[in-house]
Amino acid sequence: MTEVATAAAAEEPLPRPVQPRGVPDWWPLGAILLLAAILRLSTLGQQSFWYDEAFTPVHVLRASLAATLHNVVHTENTPPLWYVLEWAIARVLGTGVLALRLLSALAGIATVAVAWAIARELATRRTAIVCATLVAVNPLFVWYSQEARAYGLFVLFASLALLCFVRALREPTPRRLAAFSLSASLALLSHYFAVFLLIPMILWLVASALASAPRSERRSRERPKIQKNLARVLGAVAIPVLVGVALMPLVLAQGGHGTQWIGEWALASRLEAIPQYYLTGYTGAALGHGIELLVFAVALAGFGWGLWCTLTPREERGALIALAVCACGVLIPIVLAFLGADYLAPRNLVAAMVPVSVLLAIVIGAQRSGRAGLALASLLALGFLALSVDVTLSPRLQRGDWAGVAHVLRAARPAHVITTVELGSAPLEYYLPPLRGLASNGSVRVTEIDETGYAPLRRSSQSPPAPGFHLAESKDIHGLIVYRFTSSAPVTISQQVLREHVITPEAPPEVLVPVSSSSGKTL
Q1: pLDDT value of residue 519
Q2: Rounded (10°) CA dihedral 248, 254, 255, 261
Q3: Residue 312 has pLDDT above 70, yes or no
Q4: Per the omega criterion (within 30 degrees of 0), is the bond before 224 cis?
Q5: pLDDT classification of 4: cutoffs 50, 70, 90
Q6: How far apart, in whole angstroms, are the C-alpha atoms of residue 37 and residue 105?
Q7: Does the chain have fewer CB atoms within 10 Å around its N or its C terminus?
Q8: Is residue 238 scored above 90 in pLDDT?
Q9: What is the mean pLDDT of the segment spanning 507-518?
Q10: Share of the chain above pLDDT 90, in %
Q11: Integer Cα distance of 46 and 105 in angstroms
Q12: Given pLDDT bands bounded at 50, 70 and 90, which one contains residue 71?
């Protein structure tokens, strides 16, 4: 009886601290949301589109939804939900940088509130404050809240699924199970990697329903009630399973478009990048391992101190749930990569970093960790905040400045051609319309050849790409290089010759020509 009473007491919510009259209990969440909004919205249009972002308005979004979905099938490797929403936004706000990134920014801000609710459900208000703060200022979450791709929406819906899961696990009412079904389905429609996060949730819900009553009760009058509860749970988890099955034809049709770069990136380097992304952000590698180790040391110290002080039973259970979800979300793709199904890109694991944040918050912000735990949590949050602010101040940590390159190229002669690394083709088509790719058997008559790419350059980069041309100008735009070669008279030059001259190690380049130029066939 004593053990039962102790367990029941552990599950009871902790008493809420007394708040000053007129101050709502959730005021810290409001302050954290304000900070999250400032970090995401104040610099939303500061960085230019990079390749994947620019690819959407240039090659995917069309006037009709049917044409847009057709392009999603044949050019993308992501489920359709984000593109449908962006298509609707583009009809109202256009395809500017702010318009196309707004959805991700709003999703990122909402994720902070969801992270608060998850931690509050699994542990305490103190934990919720720590968790929401970590999610609000973490440079990885801020980065994908400012990117016009599906990752911000993926993080939001995967987090909502986790919240609905923990609530349904505690009390599997029809409304809570329906909320889990909906959020889990939306997560799958946002990103295929949601399946790895949903697997432990679905299995846990089913196992909990099966173990909801002792065996003796299963033979008693309670059996119909137990069976009804089990049927309700199975019906709820069946919906996202059916959504996943329905997406399989789309997965096969897309065939992994544009994922070749994953296999070209050494698996060991990708595994190393997973913790680096969380600790220092998407571009944090440029800061060096010293900064990464410093942030890791603070996180490890806080985690170790929380475990040393021991968790309450409620915190232990919450930590176990967060650990199970994030472990499956990260480890299953790693195992599949070793087995040959290698789609392991660190950015595909971004949603798994929310349960990682929940786990850290539960342990570092544990009730028994006292002021030392809060101090370490604050130090970690300040480190994250400093890194996020550094991205806004340091061009070397930002996306390539293709808008700056386009600004330079606007001064080109009317008869010109542009060669660029593949990652520059879509941004230049976005910022310098109308451009088209020159066909493999095409040629163009020009007096100027503009070559662009990332540093470092080849030793032969300053040599002219064709007879009659000479290097007239070179510019460095935050690591992006523009070489301008000019000729006194028009010269007809083929696509093959242009592709053979490369200023950067990345080869072969893309060849872009203005639609109005006197060129041969274009793609």
Answers
A1: 47
A2: -130
A3: yes
A4: no
A5: very low
A6: 8
A7: N
A8: yes
A9: 76
A10: 76
A11: 13
A12: very high
Give the model's confidence band at 219: pLDDT under 50 very low, under 70 low, under 90 confident, else very high: low
Which alpha helices (DSSP H) does 124-266 contain, by range?
125-137, 139-144, 151-170, 174-190, 194-210, 215-218, 223-254, 260-264
Q: What is the CA 269 to chain-centroid distance, rounded?
A: 19
The residue ranking higher by pLDDT, 223 or 153, is 153
How far apart CA 469 and CA 484 sit, in angstroms, is: 10
Measured over the CA atoms of residue 57, residue 63, residue 65 and residue 68, the dihedral's sign is: negative
In order of 18, 24, 25, 31, 63, the CA distances from 21 in angstroms are 9, 8, 10, 18, 54
Q: How far is it, in rounded angstroms, from Cα 503 to Cα 480? A: 11
Instruction: State the helix-helix crossing angle for 223-254 and 194-210, rounded to 10 degrees.
Output: 170
DSSP code of residue 468? T
- In angstroms, rounded to a whole number, what is the distance separating the alpha carbons of residues 14 and 31? 23
- Report the candidate in 450, 434, 436, 426 with the shortest Cα–Cα distance to residue 498: 450
pLDDT band at 214 (very low <50, low <70, confident <90, very high): low
Please give the Cα distance from 523 to 513 (Å, whole number).
10
Distances (CA, A) of 168 to 77, 176, 233, 327, 511: 32, 5, 9, 21, 54
More confident residue, 503 or 368: 368
Question: 498 near 509, Cβ under 8 Å?
Answer: yes
Q: What is the dihedral of CA 37, 38, 41, 45, to 10 degrees?
A: -160
pLDDT per residue over 102-131, tens digit each?
Answer: 999 999 999 999 999 999 999 999 999 999
Helix (H, G, I), strand (E, B) or coil at 182: helix
Mean pLDDT of 61-72: 96
Half-sphere exposure of 260 (CA within 13 A, CB side): 3
Place of tokens 């996180």: 299
> What are the residue boundaries of the structural domains of the chain, listed by start?
25-213+224-397, 402-514
Two tokens, residue 334: 């790693």
How far is it, in rounded angstroms, from Cα 434 to Cα 436? 7
What lies within 8 Å, CB to CB, of 92 at 6+ separation is: none
Q: How far is CA 24 from CA 27, 30, 31, 117, 416, in A?
A: 6, 10, 12, 16, 63
Q: To which H or E segment does residue 514 belong?
A: strand 510-514
Q: Which residues contact 272 (CB under 8 A, 6 or more apart)?
A: none
Structure tokens at 430: 């976005």
The pLDDT of residue 1 is above 50: no
Chain CA centroid to CA 135, Å: 13
